[in-house]
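Example 829.
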Amino acid sequence: MHSVLKLLIFFFLFAQAFTSYPGYKLENVVTSDSGFTGDLALISAGPYGNDYQKLALYVNYQTNSRLRVKIYPANEKYYEVPFVVQVSNSTVKPTDMDYEVTYETNPFSLTIKRKSDQTILFDTNTNGSDLNGLIFEKNYLELSTNLEKDPILFGLGERKSDFVLELNQTYTLFANSQNKKKNQNRYSSYPVYYQFSKASKTFHSVFFVNSDPTDFVLMDNSLTFKSIGGIIDLFVFTGPSFDEAANQLSDVIGKPSRISYWNLGWHQSRYGWKTLDIVKQVVNNFTKLQLPLETIYSDIDCMDNDINWTFDPVRYPQADFRAFVDELHNDHRYWIPITDIQTPLIHDYLPYTLGNEKDIFIKNPVGNPYWGILRHGPCMYPDFTHPNSTDYWTQILENYYNKIPFDGLWIDMNEPDNYESIWPKDKYDFPYTPGNQNLDRHTVPLECMQYYSQEIDLHNMYGYSQSRATRFAMETILPQKRSFILTRSSFIGLGNIAQTWTGDNDSTFESMKESISTVLHSNTALIPMIGADICGYSGDVTEELCIRWYQLGTFYPFSRNHNHLFQREQLPYSFGDNVTTIIKNYIDNRYYILPYLYSLFEKSSREGNVIWRVMLYDYPEDSYTWYLGDQIMVGDSLMILPVLESGQTGVEGYFPNDNWYDWWSGKQIMEKLTNQTHGLHIEMLAPIESMPVIIKGGSIIPTQIPALTSAESRLNNFELIIALDPQSEASGWLYLDDGESVDIENKYTEIKFTLSNNKLESEIIKNDFNIPDSASLHYLKILGIKKVSLVIVNGKSVDFEYDNKLYILEINDLDIDLNNSFTVEFTEN
Ligand SMILES: *[C@@H]1O[C@H](CO)[C@@H](O)[C@H](O)[C@H]1NC(C)=O
Ligand SMILES: *[C@@H]1O[C@H](CO)[C@@H](O)[C@H](O)[C@H]1NC(C)=O
Ligand SMILES: *[C@@H]1O[C@H](CO)[C@@H](O)[C@H](O)[C@H]1NC(C)=O
Ligand SMILES: *[C@@H]1O[C@H](CO)[C@@H](O)[C@H](O)[C@H]1NC(C)=O
Ligand SMILES: *[C@@H]1O[C@H](CO)[C@@H](O)[C@H](O)[C@H]1NC(C)=O
Ligand SMILES: *[C@@H]1O[C@H](CO)[C@@H](O)[C@H](O)[C@H]1NC(C)=O
Ligand SMILES: *[C@@H]1O[C@H](CO)[C@@H](O)[C@H](O)[C@H]1NC(C)=O
Ligand SMILES: *[C@@H]1O[C@H](CO)[C@@H](O)[C@H](O)[C@H]1NC(C)=O
Ligand SMILES: *[C@@H]1O[C@H](CO)[C@@H](O)[C@H](O)[C@H]1NC(C)=O
Ligand SMILES: CC(=O)N[C@H]1CO[C@H](CO)[C@@H](O)[C@@H]1O
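Predicted structure in complex with 2-acetamido-2-deoxy-beta-D-glucopyranose:
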């Protein structure tokens, strides 16, 4: 290489490495009980120009565990994320704050520590590092925090990534339907991360209230936030447990909305059911084979010429279709149609004419509706931040509902997708480009205007704002029912409104494995109701993969099978009787644990808990759990070890130091070791018909005999599966209501079960739900009970079976009314 060129390159690199923008100077600090304010004055210009000279700093102590920091232009209008944040500023000092905030004035920096253990939660002091100070320009914001060396961070979805985010990577938030590579941004944006501190073994989290296209650059000792709009507005949550950090976030963005019981049943979908007759056959086949089926989806197959809200007169005649859906409803099943948001320009087509009349389409910068291109040519995009869009959308949905009454909606392509950007140009020209990708490709150009703000600010929120409008519409159409809205694109806060799935995936082992961290990360953003298309969407699935995916997928919070038109069938019965039997076991098992799952979701909607958990959350002291991303706790009690590679007939799991039992056989797998920090690595057998499922000692899992629908299974008998912890104790919780009403006041039942000192007791916390007569507690199984000679139920001795090798006690033929409290005593002579 030419030496001058070398020198130039050297100079360039050298110059890059040491270019540092000190940021701002803090002046005029005014403190109050609830925090402090100050003025920030620019020290020297940032990288791309248009720096704000004056900024305002606002630090607000909101609760003992929550702090808000806001930095915004002092004298100019600015964009703030609408709808998501549900708390206001605090004016009083919290009683016992678990954080302290210090600052430097020149250059300005903030350091936030947890008071109780001095763990650094957020620290923008970049003095002595090659990180920049605060940069705040018209189209570029940058703020860095120092992190513990080799930090454990998770969140910042949606993408396929490891659960613990890889270091030295950039994580982009920009809703996108095209990216397929590891760590790239996908459909949704969740600007929140959690950090686990290896030093203090605690968790805290940080939520950036910013919806503009953003990069998070994660290095091995720092995280840098780079956004091309909005302001710096962040919440710091002190934890210190994972659950506390999640609950603290949920106080700000709202709890996950209460789901209907039927949402937890089996969802069957397919793109490629060309006629109504085929769909009828599917339903009949499920029944014939005694496979549970809750919900049927309709992809665009049923539409006339692919136009939403219409039915093909020959393949899906409306009257027949309606009769079919009525029949589904009679059988306590549900129907969910798809809709894409792009509105074609067709005369006399209500979505188009009404949208024009109400003037609610997204505008180009000269003020005319923007046209994109989808399947049938030009289309427009409703603007769901427009005040009249809710009326518009309600009218469209009502009109459709009156044709065929749906039970939920599947809203797709809402990144929003665009086959071709025909205006204004194909190149985005802001100075910095998150994700280093053409941001105008395949979507509405970022220069376009929505009512609330420019598209650049609202792009990441399109699916969220559509979900919000859909939620309002559903509440009008189906008042008093909990709505079900399955959206592909979402933003943090969606969990309070709707549900999601992981979008188009592939029929590969790799894609199945990747679904796990996507589901986990969405849970950390408090969108717990999520699953991937079981068996994969694109590509032909193999029998082996499909079995493995059904095994995993029946433990997703949301369980749906769906695939693409060109792919082979992957229904539970598409592979022959032997395979149907295997899959049926797992779907039946899902119905069996519905009372447990429903109770978990209730807890989530009350407190903000997640459903899918990694081992780290509950065993932070055990460093062997820290990077385990593929073995999952479903709630507090069930661990699953999915089989993620072809040809495997065993899976190694890590069992933290505790009691663990095999879910299927009841056999104890591990007994807590005394005086050990770590647990054991254990290889579990996993022949094709079986995925290891493990119950944690200390759990009481309420179950109910499965049936073909959840409405029927709810009439069946209850069972309790009890696994003893090292102190021979266990506890559990059952929540029941009608499964669909919005107003549940005085209509629900809540029972706490506790086992200790050889006595199982139920404590009725509330008993306003009418448990069907046919659903009594008829069976108990207790795992890990070392000795038993007599069992006494409500004072009367009863028959029992005891396996003194496996330490399993079973009591059959009980008839306990769960509406009343009961006791079961075990005597060991
Ligand atoms: C909280 O205070 C900040 C700074 O004064 C202000 O920008 C913001 O609008 C306030 N928010 C609410 C919800 O009052
Ligand atoms: C920055 O670091 C230098 C050297 O460690 C120190 O002298 C100086 O006071 C620091 N400045 C601030 C603002 O922390
Ligand atoms: C990240 O980059 C730093 C510095 O370039 C390097 O020392 C470190 O090993 C890298 N870490 C990983 C996990 O790649
Ligand atoms: C229903 O099952 C029959 C076999 O019993 C099969 O021939 C048919 O293809 C199935 N129909 C659908 C749509 O799956
Ligand atoms: C309707 O659905 C099709 C799918 O064929 C989609 O391409 C189109 O843009 C949708 N939009 C509307 C509102 O009709
Ligand atoms: C909303 O609709 C009402 C009634 O049609 C109209 O008066 C109002 O101007 C519309 N609002 C906007 C922002 O377009
Ligand atoms: C099911 O039976 C078919 C045909 O006998 C066989 O090829 C296949 O391997 C079996 N699959 C399983 C999972 O047993
Ligand atoms: C466990 O540790 C405790 C306290 O350090 C000690 O008293 C006890 O003897 C130990 N037990 C065993 C089995 O090592
Ligand atoms: C359940 O118990 C409560 C009080 O013990 C009683 O008022 C209620 O009628 C009972 N419900 C049923 C369905 O038995
Ligand atoms: C078609 C498609 O988008 N496939 C994606 C399915 O999901 C996995 C990740 O979960 C991606 O790797 C695929 O590219």
